[in-house]
Amino acid sequence: MNQYQPKKNYRKKGPKMDTIKKGVYILPNFLTSMGLFCGFFSIISTMQGDYVRAAWAIVIAGVFDGLDGRIARMTHTTSKFGLEYDSLADLVAFGVAPALLSYSWVLDQYGRLGWLAAFLYVGCGAVRLARFNVMSDTVKSGFFQGLPIPGAAGMVSTTVIFCFHFNFVDKLPLSMIFLLMIFLLAFLMVSSIKFRSFKDLDLRSRKPFSSVVLIIMLIVILAAEPQVMLFCIGVLYLFLGLLLHIKDLLNRKKIKDSHISSVEGKDGK
Asked: Containing H/E element for 35?
């Protein structure tokens, strides 16, 4: 054997390069990028004093956020990169943008308390997103643990649109309402209250004919008064989550009481 013959490299090949090295899925990440763009556009509009346009940009970002996840699941193009990118985009579009909108419009009257409330919203939103990424494989797909940050941002933006639509310009009561709402939304985002996610809704299966009529009616109602209906949908989603939580607490109490009664009955024999 030739001693000068180069030795063969017997080193085992390492694991395959991650998905970033191999490439990323275009369509869902394009939709995520559009949501990020809308969030940035909302921030620019807020800085220019156009609060209605800033609020609508957040609403449109919510549409893109709903589409990217749905399309990724339907086309089986979900990835770890997409999950992380979506969270970063959500923090801008649904965390920073609504907080800046709230502070610039009405909360600046409170000075330090106002910007601290806005920061609390952003901080709780970031914690909410981090918890979602960690627990994404353990939580039931039909529910969110805590209010999702797009829902919180939707509540802020639709309230702004609603107030401008009816020309509510008295900033003193509005600032009080927004201050309480920001604290409530921040608490709900990091709470353990479950909210419906609608991820388990199968759009590809056959549905009754009445569902098509219901969709048409919903489109007509939204198109007739979008400024009012979007606000009502946000409030309804918020209160449905709270009502389901209260119902869950009552059921747990009932089960606990029945268990205590059964134990006491056995001890009394």
From this structure: helix 26-47
Token pair recorded at residue 241:
């989550």
Identify whether the C-beta of residue 68 lies closer than 8 Å to the C-beta of residue 32.
Answer: yes
Closest CA to 53 of 180, 157, 199, 204: 157
Largest Cα separation within the chain, whole Å, is: 93
Quickly list H helices, 48-142. Answer: 51-74, 80-90, 97-105, 112-135
Q: Could you tell me which of 66, 127, 63 has the C-alpha nearest to residue 95?
A: 127
Kindly state the DSSP code that residue 139 receives in the 8-state scheme. S
Question: With helix as H, strand as E and coil as C, how does 93-120 read?
Answer: HHHHHHHHHHHHHCHHHHCHHHHHHHHH
Where do the structural domains in the chain lie, given as residue ranges?
Answer: 21-200
pTM for this entry: 0.82
Name the CATH superfamily, with its identifier, for domain 21-200.
CDP-alcohol phosphotransferase transmembrane (TM) domain (1.20.120.1760)
3-state secondary structure of 194: strand
**Spatial separation of the C-alpha atoms in residues 13 and 171, rounded to whole Å:** 65
The Cβ of residue 48 has, within 10 Å, a number of other Cβ atoms equal to: 10
Q: Where are the alpha helices (DSSP H) in 191-269?
A: 209-224, 226-268
Structure tokens at 37: 């763009």
Amino acid at 251: N
Per-residue pLDDT tens over the stretch 205-255: 666 666 677 778 878 877 888 899 999 999 999 998 889 888 888 888 777
